[in-house]
From TrEMBL:
It comes from the Eukaryota. Coiled coil: none annotated. SMART domains: fCBD. Keywords: Signal. One of its GO terms (molecular function) is cellulose binding. The keyword Signal applies. Signal peptide: none annotated. This is CBM1 domain-containing protein. PROSITE patterns: CBM1_2. InterPro entries: CBD, CBD_sf.
C-alpha cells in the first residue's frame, strides 16, 4: 500500500500496514502457521481450545487453563500433576492420589507434585 510521506520496504514476507494517519508498521505477513489451532499439546494453555489426545484441559486458576495428561483412573492424578500445597488454590480434599508408579514430592509448603518413582 502506498501512503503520502511514508516509505515501506518491499520484502515479500512483510507488508506495510497503516495504523493511523501518522503511523505505518512493517510487519510479517500472516502465514498458515498463524491460523487457529484445532488442538494444543500437553502443558500448553487450552481454555477455548481442545487438548491433544490423552490430555485434558485443567483449570489451574481463574486466569489460566492448561492441557495436562489424563490419568487412567478417575481417583488418581496424572504424572506431573499437583498433589498438594496451597498454590493455585489446590483442593487437598479432592480424594485423589498419585498413580502407583509415581510419588507425591513436596517442593515446599506451597507446591507438591506427582513425579515418577
Amino acid at each position: 500500500m502506498t501512503w503520502p510521506f511514508g516509505v515501506c520496504c518491499k520484502a515479500p514476507n512483510f507488508s506495510c500496514n497503516k495504523k493511523n494517519d501518522y503511523l505505518s508498521l512493517y510487519e510479517p505477513k500472516k502465514n498458515e502457521m498463524d491460523q487457529e489451532v484445532s488442538e494444543v499439546d500437553v502443558w500448553q494453555q487450552c481454555g477455548d481450545t481442545a487438548c491433544a489426545a490423552g490430555n485434558s484441559c485443567v483449570n489451574v486458576n481463574d486466569w489460566y487453563s492448561q492441557c495436562q495428561p489424563t490419568s487412567p483412573n478417575a481417583n488418581q492424578l496424572a504424572t506431573w500433576a499437583q498433589c498438594g500445597g496451597t498454590a493455585n488454590n489446590y483442593n487437598t480434599n479432592n480424594g485423589k492420589t498419585c498413580r502407583d508408579t509415581d510419588k507425591c514430592f513436596a517442593y515446599n509448603l506451597y507446591y507438591s507434585q506427582c513425579i515418577p518413582k
